[in-house]
Amino acid sequence: MKTITITIALVLLTLGTNLSAQRHSSSNEYGNTLNIGLGIGGYSGYYGYYGNTLPVFNLNYEFGVARNFTLAPFISFYSYSDANYRSYVTPIGVKGTYYLDQLLHAGSDWDFYVAGSLGADIETTTWNDGYNGDRSYYKSVDPLYLDFHLGTEYHISRKVGLFLDFSTGVSTIGIAIH
After folding, report:
1. Helix (H) or strand (E) holding 41
2. Which of 167, 154, 161 minimizes the C-alpha distance to 110?
3. Are 27 and 111 in contact (CB under 8 A)?
4. Which of 34, 58, 68, 141 is the most buried if burial means most Cβ atoms within 10 Å?
5. Are 58 and 93 spatial neighbours (Cβ–Cβ below 8 Å)?
6. Half-sphere exposure for 114 (CA within 13 Å, toward CB)
7. Cα separation of 156 and 145, whole Å?
8. Helix H or strand E encompassing 54
9. From the candidate CATH numbers 2.40.10.10, 2.40.160.20, 3.30.9.10, 2.40.240.20, the one assigned to the domain spanning 2-177
10. CA distance 53 to 111
11. 134, 144, 143, 145: which is closest to 85 by C-alpha?
């Protein structure tokens, strides 16, 4: 419960901050971007030890808070199952992103970044009828959500981009709307 309280406080703090950065202008400011991603689970934090996972959906909105740095409240959703149960997991939190474009001398069509996400995993499990085994055995999600990212975005236009986000959890591909 303490983790959820801290995460909610971070999200509210982020939303309450004076955020005025414009999306990728000639001054290399970032923010005001909706990112919609899709990924596939691949390790125990996102994939049931004995189960099948559905695609992971991720949604975040970036706010520029400093030169080359954004914060993005996020929410994700995925589920996994086996013959005895189905678990639904919703990570929520804040993703901090530092853009490397100036360091890498990237052209205006590309963004490169490193990031970290911190939040909480909310898990709900439903059990199949007739299952009388140990219901705590299948719980595989840690309530603390911590993830590191390395990513890029290609700008199709001033308003739309495609991104690829590699992470220690679930790598996603998606669309960025500026």
Report:
1. none
2. 154
3. no
4. 58
5. no
6. 3
7. 32
8. none
9. 2.40.160.20
10. 30
11. 134
Query: Which of 1-15, 34-48, 158-172 comes out lowest in average pLDDT?
Result: 1-15
- At 108, the amino acid letter reads S
Q: What is the pLDDT of residues 34-87, one digit of tens each?
A: 999 999 765 444 444 445 566 899 999 999 999 999 999 999 998 877 778 888
Residue pair 38/171 in contact by the 8 Å Cβ criterion: no
Amino acid making up residue 136: S
Alpha-carbon distance of 87 to 85, in angstroms, equals: 7
The count of other CB atoms within 10 Å of the CB of residue 154 is 12
Measured CA angle at 52 (ends 51, 54), to 5 deg: 140
Question: Which residue ranges make up each domain of the chain?
Answer: 2-177
Contacts of 167 (CB under 8 A, 6+ apart): 117, 147, 148, 149, 150
Cα radius of gyration (the chain): 18
* 145 three-class SS: strand
